[in-house]
Design goal:
- This protein is 53% helix and 13% strand.
- The chain is α+β, with helices and mostly antiparallel strands and 313 residues long.
- It has 3 domains: 154 residues, no CATH class; 69 residues; 62 residues, no CATH class.
- The strands form 4 sheets. Strands 1-2-3-4 form a 4-stranded mixed β-sheet. Strands 5-10 form a two-stranded antiparallel sheet.
- Strand 8 and strand 9 form a beta hairpin.
C-alpha cells in the first residue's frame, strides 16, 4: 500500500535520487490550504505553510536516502504522497546499517527543531504578533510541523521510523525474523490504541493514517512468520554469504536459467544436474545479493587446540 511511480510526476533529481510527487498530493494540498485560511489574512500564507511541510518531509526522506548510501546501500527514489513521503532505501542486511538508514530521517527534524524554535523566540522578542502576525503564525506552524513529524514518526508502530528503529535495536538480540515479529505485534497494539484516539477526537485524517499503518503491520507480521520459517530450514554450514555471513539453505532453491529446473547449486558446485549448465550468479536467499559461487566463502572448521599440558610441581 505504499506509493509507486505509477501516477506520480517527476520533479527533479539530486545526487542521483529522483523525486516524484503523487497526483493525489495536489488534492490534499488544496484541502489543507483551504482549512488554514482562517489562520492568516491571505491564502498565500496557507500555501507557503503547506509548501514548507512539503520541503521538511522532503529533507526527512533525503536523510534516509543519503544515510542508506553512506552504509553501502541503494537509494535512488523518493515519492511524496498525501500520507507523507517514502524513500525507497535498500540498506545492507545488518542491524547497524538499517538503524542508521532509518534514524537519519528523524535526525533531520531534530536538527531543524531548534532552528524553528529560535525563529519563534526571535519573533516573540520583537513583538512579531503585533508587527507581523502572518509571519509569526507561519514561524509557529514551522515549529509545530517539525515537532509533530518528529513525535509521530518516532511512535513504535511499524513501518514508522520509530518501529523500524526499535526493530533494528532488537535485531542485535533476537535476529532479523523475531525482531520483525516483535515490532509488528507491538505496532499492531499501538495502532489499535491510536485508532481509538482517532475515534475519540473524531479525526478522519488520523483514522485513515492509522488504518494504513495497521494494514502494513499485519503484512509485516505475515512476512516475519515466513522469514522465521525460512530461518529454521536446514542450511549448509560449510558455506556463508560474503555479504550477510549467513549459511545458504540446503535444498533445491536455485533456478537454472537454461532448462528452468530448480536444483541445489551447492550440491553440484554450481552445475545444473539436468542440463549441465553452470549458474554464473548465486543469489543469497537472506540478503538478496547475487555473486559467483567462488565468491561464497567456505566456512573454516573450528581449530582443535591441544589440551594444556599438566604442570608437575
Amino acid at each position: 500500500m505504499t506509493p509507486t511511480r505509477s501516477g506520480s510526476i517527476h520533479l527533479f533529481k539530486f545526487r542521483g535520487i529522483a523525486v516524484y510527487v503523487h497526483w493525489s498530493w495536489f488534492f490534499v494540498a488544496f484541502y489543507s490550504i483551504s482549512t488554514r485560511v482562517n489562520h492568516y489574512t491571505s491564502p498565500l500564507w496557507g500555501a507557503l505553510e503547506y509548501l514548507a511541510l512539503f520541503f521538511i518531509v522532503l529533507l526527512h526522506e533525503f536523510g534516509h536516502a543519503l544515510a542508506c548510501r553512506q552504509v553501502g546501500g541503494q537509494a535512488d527514489q523518493i515519492i511524496l504522497w498525501p500520507l507523507g513521503g517514502v524513500a525507497y532505501v535498500d540498506p545492507p542486511e545488518r542491524p547497524g546499517a538499517v538503524l542508521w538508514s532509518i534514524a537519519a530521517g528523524p535526525l533531520v527534524n531534530v536538527v531543524l527543531l531548534p532552528v524553528a524554535w529560535l525563529l519563534q523566540a526571535w519573533m516573540h522578542a520583537i513583538g512579531g504578533a503585533q508587527l507581523y502576525p502572518n509571519l509569526t503564525s507561519f514561524v509557529y506552524a514551522l515549529f509545530m510541523i517539525n515537532l509533530g513529524l518528529l513525535i509521530f514518526n518516532l511512535l513504535p508502530i511499524y513501518p514508522l521510523d520509530g518501529g523500524q528503529i526499535l526493530r533494528s535495536l532488537l535485531w542485535y538480540f533476537l535476529g532479523p525474523a523475531r525482531s520483525l515479529l516483535a515490532v509488528a505485534a507491538i505496532g499492531f497494539i499501538g495502532g489499535l490504541g491510536l485508532l481509538g484516539l482517532a475515534v475519540w477526537i473524531r479525526s478522519l485524517w488520523i483514522g485513515i493514517m492509522v488504518l494504513f499503518l495497521l494494514v502494513n503491520c499485519w503484512r509485516s507480521f505475515r512476512e516475519a512468520r515466513l522469514f522465521r520459517q525460512q530461518e529454521l530450514l536446514p542450511r549448509r554450514s560449510e558455506w556463508q554469504c560474503s555479504s550477510c555471513q549467513r549459511a545458504p539453505l540446503e535444498g533445491r532453491y536455485w533456478l537454472c536459467h537454461t532448462c528452468l529446473h530448480v536444483f541445489d547449486v551447492f550440491a553440484g558446485q554450481g552445475v545444473c544436474p539436468h542440463c549441465n549448465s553452470y549458474l554464473s550468479l548465486v543469489t543469497c536467499p537472506d540478503c538478496g545479493d547475487a555473486r559467483g559461487l567462488l565468491l561464497w566463502r567456505p566456512r573454516r572448521p573450528p581449530e582443535i587446540k591441544a589440551p594444556p599440558a599438566a604442570l608437575d610441581l
